Amino acid sequence: MADKESILLEGLRDSYPKWRSLLHSRFNLLFYGYGSKIPLLSDFADEGLSDGYVVRIEGYMASPRGMSGASILHRCLLGVFDFIFRHALVANDATLLEVARKLAQLSQYHSRTSRSPTRIYLVIDNIERLVEYGGDEVLECLAVIVAASPTIHLVASVDHHRSALMGNILETFAFLNIPVHTRLDYTREVMAFNGRALPAWTGLGGGRGEGCTAYGGAGLAVVLKSLTPNHLNLLKHLALLLLDTSEPDGTVPFDTLLKVTKRKAIASNHVKLKSLLTELIDHRVVIQRRAPTTGAQTYHMPYGKKQIEVISQGDFDSVDKV
């Protein structure tokens, strides 16, 4: 899977400058076609959108049994104020629409007054699911943000067979439709919709029945194969740090991880690293904690030493064999 994915992404990277130019010309991009587009959007965000801040919004995480689309969007937009507009105050109990309007006002102000205004790219995987389980509130907030400023750009993908029914709704965002047939498995999307673990009927050791673990059997290897090369590289270096950590609780502080990811060209800033870590946390291959004395964020993996050693060597196919 990793080789197939790498070949696919290498062939698409020549288009990244053109796509970025379209975004700067006030078009929003909508990718559609057969196959998961999560690796494409991740790679485009990392390699093609380095001139601004990327906010990853995982629409595929929305489901009737889990988070709503509105709560996912609300969490992501609050993160903008934590990492980009730190000087601006926004209440944690502010509604989604209030947060969206505040972000729109700030971005509009910066675009008028700054010689090099901050560009923000909202990258949404499976926007149709975000809307389906978030409703009009999600649409209204996205419309408010995107219409307000020439430096906030929207990149999204659609995959669901019912996404065609959203045609009139999506016209609001002036999307430029881009067909991309990746033919990659929808492993991550299926896991998210079924409680972040593969259902038992897949035969891949998922399931949440009594006595089962989230990624038993071939589960962990399948999860790792579904990740992008950038995620796997981050996971490898986190494993290396975990093996050498001197922290009493055996975790790795965020700042320590950031230094390594900058040096290894995995994540150039804390926003991109936070986005990558959030996805790994959602897949439960990384766990976040807070240091009891300082409150600083720390990270570790919920696996034994032998599995962490295998991950640190980059031998992801062998993690279920130790």
UniProtKB/TrEMBL annotation:
Among Pfam families, the record links this protein to: RecA-like_ORC2, WHD_ORC2
Q: What is its main location?
A: nucleus
Gene Ontology CC entries for this record:
nuclear origin of replication recognition complex
Which UniProt keywords are listed? DNA replication, Nucleus
Q: Which domain of life is it from?
A: Eukaryota
Q: Which residues form the Origin recognition complex subunit 2 RecA-like domain?
A: 8-166
Q: Which GO terms describe its biological process?
A: DNA replication
Q: Where found?
A: Nucleus
MF annotations from Gene Ontology: DNA replication origin binding
Which family would the database say this protein is a member of?
Belongs to the ORC2 family.
What function is annotated for this protein? Component of the origin recognition complex (ORC) that binds origins of replication. DNA-binding is ATP-dependent. ORC is required to assemble the pre-replication complex necessary to initiate DNA replication.
Assembly and partners are described as: Component of the origin recognition complex (ORC).
Q: Name the chain's protein.
A: Origin recognition complex subunit 2
Which species? Perkinsus olseni
